[in-house]
Amino acid sequence: MKLITFAVPCYNSAAYMDHCIKTLLEAGDEAEIILVDDGSTDDTPAIADRYAEQYPDVVRVIHQPNGGHGEGVNQGLAHATGLYYKVVDSDDWLDVPSLHKVMAQLRTFAENPVDMVVCNYVYEHVEDNTSHTVNYRNVFPVDKVFTWEEIHKFLPSQNLLMHSVIYRSQLLRDCGLVLPKHTFYVDNIFVYQPLPSVKTLYYMDLDLYRYFIGRADQSVNEQVMVRRVDQQLRVTRIMLACPSPYDLPERQKNLASYMLNYLSMMVAISSVFLTISGTPESLEKKAQLWKELSEGDPRLYRRMKLFSVSAFTNLPGGLGNHLTVLLYRGVQKIYKFN
Questions:
Q1: pLDDT at 263
Q2: For residues 243 and 181, what is the distance between their CA atoms, to the nearest angstrom?
Q3: CB 31 within 8 A of CB 103
Q4: What pLDDT, in 10s, does the model give residues 298-308?
Q5: When comparing pLDDT for 277 and 146, which is higher?
Q6: Rg (Cα) of the chain, in Å, rounded?
Q7: Fewer CB within a 10 Å sphere, N or C end of the chain?
Q8: Which of 80, 89, 69, 71 minimizes the C-alpha distance to 32?
Q9: Residues in Cβ contact with 298 at an 8 Å cutoff, skipping those fewer than 6 apart
Q10: How high is the pLDDT of residue 97?
């Protein structure tokens, strides 16, 4: 068994996948790199095969018909032999000195693995050549095994993302994680659904993951998100259909609070981009989302309507829609998340 599997979903990634793969190779023979070619039409398949031929003990390639990012993650997990599993997008990369430290720590968990390892991640903004680091120093104990009972409150800018987590592979399988095909934004499901199954955690205050952001064709580009808002809605509904955070045991109350805030963020994102779209159809979809929420989980609806960030994304009337967009623009300018 390998210590960790890095899954790299690749779709027409020829222009930038080399950088990603070269950083992952620094993890050495204890790591497995699964390159999932998702029906690419450029040189991605040939590049992936070349790495597999050059590093046969480390790199494996899966060629599949196009199924989207989620199916790349699914296939990576289905074929993973690593004790741990981490997804790295083909246009991102890992910081090599931090990676060496993470590998050293994972070795200590070989006999008694924790369920999730968390590290920091860095937004690398291509447009203005700036970076922004998201860390969890105020949330988690550093360099020790801990449980959800020992965590503190997350700030709004500190959500756990795919970039920050390393899951125990079998935990992902045991919780039944299967991401939908042909759907963007499924990384939110990946990091959210398994959380109640996590019993033990370990946080390393290292800037491991480098998240390249700012390309015009990226899924988090604002115009792209408006076009794909139906996929954002689909992901939000899948997350809302997961067992309610209100049903978690008392010992996981801190986790429940975090998960409620995460759901609120997802509803807010869907609401904002439906509002930015501004068509009658989009505004009707927003109204339907909130109606489903009120009828499906009144407790969650009250929280989102009165006590969370999503409350500012469902203000009534044309003026309310205008204020929603203004508030979003202000937050986006501060945090530079797309």
A1: 95
A2: 22
A3: yes
A4: 999 999 988 78
A5: 146
A6: 20
A7: N
A8: 80
A9: none
A10: 98
